[in-house]
Amino acid sequence: MTTFLARRLGFLVLVVLGVSILTFVVSHLVPADPAALIAGKNASPATLAIIRHRYGLDKPLPLQYLSYMGGLLHGDLGLSSYSRRPILDDFLDYFPATIELTFYALLISVVIGVPLGVYSGLSRGGPLDHASRIFSIAGSALPIFWLGLLLQLVFYGRLGWLPELGRLDTFMAAPRHITGIYTIDSLLSLNLQALGNTLKHVLLPAFTLAFATLSLVVRVTRASMVDVLAQDYIRTARAKGVDRFSVVMRHALRNALIPTITLLGLQVGNLLSGAFLVEIVFSWPGIGFYSVNTIQNADYQAIMSITVLIAVIYTFVNLLVDILYIKLDPRINYA
Amino acid sequence: MISSRFRFTAVLTTLLVIFAPFSRPIAHAANPSLVIDIGYETATLDPQINYDTAAAIELGNVYDGLVRAVGAKTVKIVPDLATSWSSSADGKTWTFHLRPGVTFHDGSPVNAEAVKFTFDRLLTLNQNAVADFIEIGKVDAPEPMTVVFHLKTPFPSFFTSLTSLWGTGIVSPTAVKKHATKGDPWATKWLNEHDAGSGPWMVTKWTHNQSVVLDPYPGYWRGWKGQHVGRVVIQWPKASSTQRLALEHGDADIAMNMSPEDLAAVAKESGIKVENYTGQTIWDIRLNNTHGPLQSKLVRQALSYSFDYDSMVKYVFKGYASRMLGVGPTGLANFFPAKPLYTYDINKAKSLLAQAGYSSGFTLHVDWASGDFHSAQMAQIWQADVQPLGIKMVLQEVPVSEYFRISQKASTEPDIWIGQWTMDYADDQQMYWSYFNSNVLPPANSNVMYYKNPTVNKLLEQAQQAPSAAVQHSIYAKVLPIIYSDAPEVWAVQPDDRIALRTNVHGFVYNFLYSSYYYDLYALSKS
To answer: Among B211, B236, B446, whose Cβ lies nearest the Cβ of A41?
Structure first.
């Protein structure tokens, strides 16, 4: 286990290096002049020079990369030319909102997806099985922003049940800042109104974000359920007189969930990138919303930092999934 | 084992959480609040750094300047913090007398020291917002309420340049000094998100990517008698459809960046009105005067005659625009209507091309900023119209960030770029100087046409340093017909500003200079 972890952490360093070089090269291939964007239409050459110097844009490219990596190792992600603030501050401000959104999206995927998949697998060919298959195809086919706009139109525009934008009502005070994740902060500060308001606000964006993953979860759970139910040990259990519920919940589901968990680990990446679109549609002030702004402003430093941070998080989540396998299936051994 | 009492409590708590009253408003004044949806958030609220239309509504309402521009069709300059002013005979010294009894949001007095401090801050920081004020040499405060600007050279537009919302907001030296640090003596970090102004509104809270909350400053010099709103929230939903839904539901009172389709739809709904005003932003088509056939004045004139101005207004802007009537936008100082105007006349274009020796035609690359659908449609119509002349137009969208780079050299600047220009202050001079003077090429200025005419240069320089506005005006009367006849660009359209409001919002006054970017929130009320 220790060697496994060491190997994976070593791999993480490689990922960071690879991602940072790739992002650096790609973002500098884009023929944009961030200094001119910052300076505006009437800037003098002297102003441009000052700006280039302030953001280190006057140095040769390899030096820019090295000084960036040097800063990164010291926890200094640099200054965003878009927000004019330290990128780390921006990240800490916006990322909790994305974590909250992604968490609820995952929750919805699991809480709805797994039972639906199990039920589909148990009642193969039944009406619900067909319905869930149509639902899964829809999930893969519908563009996420379109679904978001549609849900907004129905649940806010027509029915008026749910709010349209943001994390809280316009005139509602945010809960005391502890983690930046409103659900946790409002619970810790016993601010029930804020909690209720947060949940109401997160529902539409989280469901929009979850939809594609949800349909995958249904399909994969269904398939592996069908697979597991055909195994000998299930037949043995049934023959021993174990009731159907226990067979499904204790014997089958545990094994059937392994592919689902792999899928969920991989989906974290998809959810994070999906969050870019969902955050724009729902004005959700997360890292996706921020990143779109940095990209539009050719803010190299911020684009790189955010990409590297997301790559690190993604790698960690996958590591977590690998460790979770051991808990679920003692036969898996990384030694 | 969970006790049933615990379970009951847990269920009750959950129900309470879910069905609790969903809004707990932040305590605020009894007057109703106003919510404004704008498409873009600004990056900084520092009045001496920001140079961005997205911040104009905050800057203009939180800070006072020395003077302000008013007027929905033409611009009049009225006192703000300054009550009277005069200039020396040589036009190099400007004296302003300040309004007594005005205080900043921190309670300190607005005086000549504060004005001097503000302009010192602007000039020392030397960031984007300084662009309109480089001619200021020194600012003095000889008396507590008298401030004197010494210009390096005479600059007749100096007074009108003070109507700009960028750079001119007077800051409280007390507040700035309080938040200054060793590495940041002008407190830029603090002023990035807070305010030190004397205007009617104070920045209460800025939640990035969400909203800015403005609350009234009780000590504001115009007082708070009469009808006002109690709080203003500005938020930034990017999608037009999102703004439309919020407006329809009454969750937004004013929406600033809706698509023509959404505007047309909400205009029909009860409870919403769409107001249309001629704006000062122009859409002009810049020809690269150094590329191939475009070097010929006759070819450029032919292109000016090949552009169907009226159809562009009618079909591209759905009638919500006017064709340009001269070199700059109408309504500001130093605008001159051109005579005769270029009109859509394909035969005239044909004969001009023949005169220039290009009757067999040529190819031109026409570019515009990605996502700008108005320019895309204009380019397509124009492309079809010039085909009979043998001109082939190759159309392409370019990201703005890339355009900033390619426009810096004549060789990489596209043959034709469809762009927009908005005046910072109430004088077309700003455009004339930075557009048509070949001594100030990009990146320092906006002569992306790389237009060069020595006579024009000489006259523009004379106008720029004329001892008085009247002399400057008479010089422009001479130079503008030359520029118009040289046709370095095609002066296309001046579109309307279109603003959607709930009908219970009263007191909205459109401001021609500040377009839809800024309006006086102090004047607004809600029923």
So the answer is: B446
pLDDT over 70, % of chain A: 94
| Vertex A232 angle, CA A226 and A233, to 5° | 95
Q: Which of A42, A53, A280 to mutate to test the interface with B (most CBs of B within 10 A)?
A: A42
* Contact state of A36 with B241 under an 8 Å Cβ cutoff: no
β partners of residue B94 = B87, B149
Tell which of A171, A185, A191, A277 to mutate to test the B interface (max B CBs under 10 Å).
A171
Compute the nearest-CA separation of A193 from chain B (Å). Answer: 6
Least confident of A28-42, A165-179, B123-137: A28-42
Q: Does B233 contact A at CB distance below 8 Å?
A: yes
Q: B23 and A36: CB-CB below 8 Å?
A: no
**What is the 3 state secondary structure string of chain A?**
CHHHHHHHHHHHHHHHHHHHHHHHHHHHHCCCCHHHHHHCCCCCHHHHHHHHHHCCCCCCHHHHHHHHHHHHHCCCCCECCCCCCEHHHHHHHHHHHHHHHHHHHHHHHHHHHHHHHHHHHHCCCCHHHHHHHHHHHHHHHCCHHHHHHHHHHHHHHHCCCCCCCCCCCCCECCCCCCCCCHHHHHHHCCCHHHHHHHHHHHHHHHHHHHHHHHHHHHHHHHHHHHHHHCCHHHHHHHHCCCCHHHHHHHHHHHHHHHHHHHHHHHHHHHHHHHHHHHHHHCCCCCHHHHHHHHHHCCCHHHHHHHHHHHHHHHHHHHHHHHHHHHHHCCCCCCC
Distance from CA of B132 to the nearest CA of A (A): 8
B126 CB neighbours in chain A (<8 A) are 46-47, 50
Rounded Cα distance, B44 and A83, in Å: 7
ipTM over 0.85: no
Please list, in sequence order, all residues whose beta carbon lies within 8 angstroms of the beta carbon of residue B143, skipping any fewer than 6 positions away.
B112
**B338 contact A CB<8A:** no
> Is B17 in Cβ contact with A93 (below 8 Å)?
no
Q: What is the DSSP letter of B129?
A: G
Question: Residue holding tokens 């690359």?
Answer: B365
Which of A33, A87, A197, A204 best tests the B interface by mutation, with the highest count of B CBs <10 A?
A33
B242 shares contact with chain A (CB less than 8 Å): yes
Q: In this structure, what are the phi and psi dihedrals at residue B231, rounded to the nearest 5 degrees?
A: -165, 150
Mean pLDDT of A203-230: 88
Single pTM value for the model: 0.81
Domains with residue ranges and CATH for chain B: 4-234+498-526 (3.40.190.10), 282-495 (3.10.105.10)
* Chain position carrying tokens 């009367």: B477
Q: pLDDT tens across B73-99, in order?
A: 889 999 999 999 999 988 899 999 999
Cβ atoms of A27 and A81 closer than 8 Å? no
The C-alpha of A309 sits at a distance from chain B's nearest C-alpha, in angstroms, of 20
CB pairs under 8 A between A and B: 159
Choose from B48, B124, B209 for mutation: most chain A CBs within 10 A: B209
Contact A50, A335 (CB under 8 A): no
* Residues pairing with A79 in the sheet: A86
Residue-by-residue DSSP string for B158-189:
HHHHTT-SSS-----HHHHHHH--SS-TT-HH
Residues of chain A contacting B282 with CB distance shorter than 8 Å: none
Q: What is the pLDDT of residues B303-312, one digit of tens each?
A: 999 999 999 9
Nearest-Cα residue of chain A relative to residue B42: A83
Q: In the structure, what pLDDT confidence band is assigned to residue B3 with cuts at 50, 70 and 90?
A: very low
- Reading the block at residue B163, the tokens are 């109507």
CB contact under 8 A, B35 and A170: yes
CA dihedral defined by B278, B279, B280, B284, rounded to 10 degrees?
-90
